[in-house]
From TrEMBL:
Pfam families found in the cross-reference section: Gly_kinase
Main EC class the enzyme belongs to: transferase
Methyltransferase listed as a keyword: no
Phylogenetic lineage: Bacteria, Pseudomonadati, Pseudomonadota, Gammaproteobacteria, Pseudomonadales
Name of the molecule in the record: Glycerate kinase
Protein family: Belongs to the glycerate kinase type-1 family.
Amino acid sequence: MKIIIAPDSFKDSLSAEGVAQAIAAGLAQVWPDAQLIQCPMADGGEGTVESVLAACNGQLRHQTVRGPLGAAVEAHWGWLADSHTAIIEMAEASGLQLVPPGQRDACKTSTYGTGELIRAALDAGAERIILAIGGSATNDGGAGAMQALGVQLFDAEGQPLPPGGLALARLADINLDQLDPRLSQVRFDIAADVNNPLCGPHGASPIFGPQKGASPEQVQQLDAALGHFADHCANVLPKDVRDEPGSGAAGGLGFAAKAFLGAQFRAGVDVVAELVGLDEAVRGADLVITGEGRFDAQTLRGKTPFGVARIAQQHQVPVIVIAGTLGEGYEQMYAHAVDAAFALPSGPMSLEQACSEAPRLLSERAADIARLWRIASKR
């Protein structure tokens, strides 16, 4: 019996690696001789670096960078020495979790620290940089990150622009003379599941600005400022990418990554699956078990169980999901290669209790699944 265990993390409870270990422990109670292969997963959001390093024996590196509001923060990123690949979660340097709710200000937050992480990867000799861009606190069109990499932005008086998206409304000139030349030798992959354009009613500012602290008036100002930034970029760069899907991701960091770095967008779960070798692992398996904290209709939008199920389907391997909760519309996944789904709690309990007891509950649910499978196989 060969079983692939490929879950995402359970937010505020367990890492993907911890989830996989708990599931494996439960399965081993019933199938002590089974081949249990753990492939911790992620979808480009929180936990991407951790999952990839766990599967690929990579190195966790640390870097002090500017946080979203300019204060120093300690960020980590992943390094795969064999392939000279860096994995960067922009939320480590520019994430919403770094800004207390009362201080969130989409007009002033900057991606500068994310650019510093990219620079650290260049210093390490990266030939490929994977940038996971979920959970941002920023709405600066990626301007801060590009400034950290050498792009110079000036106002009409020739003064450097201050950080933040609103300052882009005063942009008068872009100078690329100091842009780090090493960037042209690096392949950039953006791991994201956001398809919004940079500007307009479905752009970065209207859709994501309010959760980052922008008022309705500021949303309009930021949208106009990003449009102004895109106008100037079009004057100095070979292609205008503002309307391309994904340009509005992470407050417009997707735009800058495409425009300045030539980055290619890919579903985050596909990037992680490639790095951890999930396709090869699933080949010849009898069962795949995946999971996430909340399994619902949103899972169809590129989340980990959806991506894992697609790969399993290619090899005609059944898929079972174990989730913290089964939310509205989770049944839709039954039409997308998921064969069964189980919720974690065995009875009424608070969210706090479910989170604290997640290892035990995961093991119990996995053992239950193994017993059901054993019954079915005897018929």
